[in-house]
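Dear colleagues,

As part of the handover before I leave the project, I'm documenting each prediction I ran so the next person doesn't have to rerun anything. This entry is a single chain, and its sequence is reproduced below.
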Amino acid sequence: MPLPGGLWWLLCCRRGFTLLHRDYGDGELSGDGDEDEDEETFELRTPSPAGGGRGPLDVTLTQPVRSGPVSDRLQSWEETRSLIPEKGPPEEDPDVVVKGWLYREPRGGGARPWLPPRRAWFVLTRDSLDQFSSSGKGARRLGSLVLTSLCSVTGPERRPKETGLWSVTVSGRKHSVRLCSPRQAEAERWGVALREVIASKAPLETPTQLLLRDIQESCGDPETVALIYLRNPILRHTSGALYAPLLPLPYGVSAPGPGYAPLREEAVRLFLALQALEGARRPGPLMQGVLQTCRDLPALRDELFLQLAKQTSGPAGPPGPPATQDPAALRYWQLLTCMSCTFRPGGAVRGHLLGHLERTEQALPDTELAAYARFIRKALGRTRGRELVPSLAEISALSRRQELLCTVHCPGAGACPVAIDSHTTAGEVARELVGRLGLARSRNAFALYEQRGAQERALAGGTLMADVLTRFENLAAEEAALDDSPDSGWRLCLRLHGPLHPEGLSPDGHELPFLFEQAHALLLRGRPPPPDDTLRALAALRLQSLHRDFSPRAPLPRAGRAAAVLGGWKRLRGMGRAEAMAAYLALAAQCPGFGAARYDVLELSTEPGGGTPQKLCLGLGAKAMSLSRPGETEPVHSVSYGHVAACQLMGPHTLALRVGESQLLLQSPQVEEIMQLVNAYLPNPSPERPCSSPSPPCQDLPDISPPSQHPGLDEPQGQSGCLGQLQD
């Protein structure tokens, strides 16, 4: 009698052996010229007569090859039906969970909506879903679906255009059953009952999982491990196709997002993509597509790790070299390197993968494969969740086991290249640059920002730099696709993060010119716009710092209030550059809200009736936070941190601030960054940076005397008056 499709039936033999049989389709390989590909051997264990050890008993199971049309084999409905005795519905069976009259959509009804649903008597037990012609004792059984832990249930959902009924779908390995009811409550009752029965089933294990367990138990015996690989082609490299996943994936579960098939089908597609890597001229985009699939479908990550461990095991079993000396054969190792820097494998898969890497290092020392194995093993110990898959530049660097260079722009210090890997965070890069610039003992706080024109956003300390570079690459690709769109222009910069402390700056260090250029950039963007008299004084101090004393040959300010600025410049005769920069910072620090982090937010009404959200600018200073209307200097609300009782997230983009007895709701895509700053200011309004040993300065770091004029900071269109003079 044939065994049911998609089931792992446990047969207890008289000698105490445990035999796990499977049907076609679960972890089976197609023939590729090697006779071993058509069979699998399972090493079964039994207690020794003396009781002191376990001896192996070899049982070879010959698997059917994929030959002939599907119709030549036993149909899945007949397979499950053949296991159930032909008897009527049980009258008082304690295993019955729920029973009743339902409609069943005919097979293929979705493609043939003109076929009406058929009414039948359904009985759900702890083991199966049975369908009968009536509820009587002698009713004819119309079919049965054996339930396992891999079955899935969707719904209830209403299908008004087809039947108008509420439907619940139960998915098995090869087919699905759609149960329909005119009442939503009845459909929900069946859906809950089906899910409870499926959840109570013991998890099924594939042959691959059992072999992984045997390998783990025999990890101290290299000969036994090699024998397991030798006798089980499912663990070794193959050029043939894989017709079912190596791990148990649920039946019929549709993958999220358009373009994805059910999980089991996607697992098979992944293996085809792996094999396509060997002959790909540009493997980078193909690798990135595979990684994106695993990011979108987390259930396939362990499956891909196992498939890569299989394909890097060599055709004769591990450890072994690639099938050919073609460099394309190393692409499995390169993709495994990218996977190890992007995702974390599960417990059993992680243990098997680490053992596979260790065996490769021991058997093939001083080879390129051993170098890849060491790199991957170290990466697995550092990898955590990634927001995005690696960029093409990162994939290229990982394929060569090299670091990636990113460029960070520092005001007054030029562009600093920083070597990063897939695990480097924004906080680590900021600390390295702070050390290079000699700012480790500064009272001011600095952070990395992503910037394009007037747009900027602080990066949280734990943000992975590799994700940031991938986002830049994606934005550039999206905007390059638009004919009328310029390059994205996104870049990284190190800038002041929080309130400005201009006191005690050394005239010989890099912090003074760094903060000087940073303050100038903030003032040019009008964040916040100072009064006119302050702008004239700042413009005169900047001219003195750039050109020293007034000279008719020096560049003169544009028309407007140029006479007042020139008069202030002449009065600064004899002031040195460092002194002028220090005076500039001291005057800028007196401007209301200068140096504070500012964010565009929406204030949501907390009244019962609601109201129209207001566009406001949130400023986070050293001692207080304020809300002002765009373009205005006077705040609408100003609250000291001592009056803030709580700061917490209320949604994906909503922040709640409790001030006394009232609550303030703010909406912004940067709420996490805002909450981080507010919570940092609450216990310590004036945080100081921790001390650390200085590092060598950045490459191409210009001499602080004279400071660069930054000709790229041109006047924005429409800007005039004192702000334009300040820029000059």
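Confidence is low (pLDDT under 50) at residues 1-85, 684-728. The domain at 510-589 is CATH 1.20.80.10 (Acyl-CoA Binding Protein).

All the best with the project,
I.
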